[in-house]
Task: inverse folding
């Protein structure tokens, strides 16, 4: 799967968890890189949409779900991106990058989700700590965020 | 030198309330364009204490509004060095707060006639919990489309928007084949006197002319005095070095020479040192550009010659232009 990604995107698919204490603005570089490529060559998105289904069938990991989230986001399917980012977070709830990616997927949806997006953006550190041992769902998130 | 380009304009009727609430008329033409349905969506910053009145004005003009985040602006030089992402900020940044938590600062809002478009609004980087939260790259790449910019201009911007490599304004100048049209003049976009808020791909970009002439016609019907003023400002002469160093002259350009009565540095900045030439221009009445040499004269006599150095930051390619 990784070789296939390298072949199609011409970049090594490295994935690192960005924890709050790492003091790193963003560990993932793939999302922005893909954005540049897709903006200049929108047809690449068709290929990536086909590929991600195959990659997910081979490997279900934080990385493949995050990647699926990026592709959905680039397709402007924000609801689908939201679903994938939540799946990625359930593998690695401390990843600040994914919390922000989830927030931005919500930021482009309906008012209820926009409200939740803003809550996450203002409390991304609390999010990364609060869900260490809890299942993340949209409902659970709303409940936790309402208390803040 | 007296100020002549940073004046405010208060409309007689159309969109007057907008200027009253904001306390200034910057972005007035963009607000009018949004009211007229010519601009699909716009961003604005409104004093949080006046948000309630602003909502009313939007309703009155048939606009929908989305309140985003409170911005407490700070110059980059005042930011603590340990803020994550500080290096990626250009000149100013802001601490972000949830709407409703403060009344004394500006709130970032999206405005559109079409409610569905509000979700396409873009997050602007703000500092939260000691780090700058940036929007996804794709959002900034696509935002020009959401704001209604012409595709040719978006593509050109994508290619040449690199401060280290290009002087964007000069690239636009090089891409201009015909006579520069005042409808494509971006030099006053941060003042109250501009029909555009985007960087055109050329100073005679047909798509931009189509967009702005429609806007100008519609505004002229409602607020003719404003159009007369904007036209007048946009038709002045300019000497541009790069995006942050532009001078506007009240005078006309002939053979790369501007004879002027007044002039003004157009960049709204606190960094006075970027305004290198005002001191010299004050002493002269004519400025001539010969390659990278600026020749100043007064009463027909050359009083000073300045050679433009290559800067280590943004490359400067000076040129003179007058729009008609
Ligand atoms: Zn254009």
Result:
């Amino acid at each position: 799967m990784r070789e296939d990604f390298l072949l199609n995107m011409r970049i090594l698919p490295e994935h690192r968890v960005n924890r709050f204490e790492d003091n790193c603005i963003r560990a993932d570089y793939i999302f922005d890189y893909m954005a540049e490529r897709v903006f200049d060559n929108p047809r690449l998105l068709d290929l990536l949409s086909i590929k991600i289904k195959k990659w997910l069938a081979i490997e279900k990991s934080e990385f493949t779900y995050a990647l699926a989230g990026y592709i959905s986001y680039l397709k402007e399917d924000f609801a689908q991106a939201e679903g994938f980012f939540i799946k990625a977070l359930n593998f690695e709830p401390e990843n600040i990058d994914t919390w922000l990616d989830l927030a931005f997927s919500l930021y482009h949806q309906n008012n209820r989700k926009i409200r939740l997006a803003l809550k996450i953006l203002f409390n991304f550190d609390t999010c990364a700590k609060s869900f260490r041992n809890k299942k993340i769902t949209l409902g659970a998130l709303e409940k936790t965020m309402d208390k803040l | 030198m007296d100020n002549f380009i940073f004046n405010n304009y208060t409309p007689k009727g159309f969109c007057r309330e907008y200027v009253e609430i904001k306390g200034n008329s910057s972005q007035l033409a963009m607000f009018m364009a949004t009211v007229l349905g010519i601009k699909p969506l716009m961003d604005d910053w409104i004093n949080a204490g006046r948000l309630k009145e602003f909502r009313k004005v939007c309703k009155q003009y048939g606009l929908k509004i989305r309140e985003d985040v409170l911005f407490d602006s700070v110059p980059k030089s005042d930011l603590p060095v340990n803020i994550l992402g500080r290096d990626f900020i250009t000149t100013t940044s802001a601490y972000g707060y949830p709407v409703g938590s403060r009344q004394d600062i500006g709130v970032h809002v999206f405005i559109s006639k079409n409610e569905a478009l509000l979700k396409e609004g873009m997050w602007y980087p703000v500092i939260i919990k000691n780090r700058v939260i940036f929007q996804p790259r794709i959002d900034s790449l696509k935002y020009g489309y959401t704001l209604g910019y012409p595709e040719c201009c978006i593509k050109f911007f994508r290619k040449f928007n690199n401060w280290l490599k290009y002087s964007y304004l000069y690239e636009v100048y090089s891409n201009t084949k015909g006579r520069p049209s005042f409808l494509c003049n971006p030099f006053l976009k941060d003042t109250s006197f501009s029909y555009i808020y985007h960087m055109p791909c050329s100073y005679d970009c047909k798509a931009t002319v189509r967009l702005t002439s429609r806007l100008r016609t519609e505004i002229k019907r409602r607020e003719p005095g404003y159009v007369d003023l904007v036209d007048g400002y946009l038709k002045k002469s300019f000497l541009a070095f790069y995006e942050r160093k532009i001078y506007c002259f009240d005078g006309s350009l002939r053979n790369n020479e501007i004879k002027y009565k007044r002039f003004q540095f157009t960049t709204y900045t606190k960094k006075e040192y970027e305004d290198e030439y005002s001191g010299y221009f004050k002493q002269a009445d004519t400025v001539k550009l010969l390659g990278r040499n600026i020749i100043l004269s007064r009463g027909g006599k050359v009083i000073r010659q300045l050679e433009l150095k290559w800067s280590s930051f943004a490359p400067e390619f000076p040129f003179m232009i007058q729009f008609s």
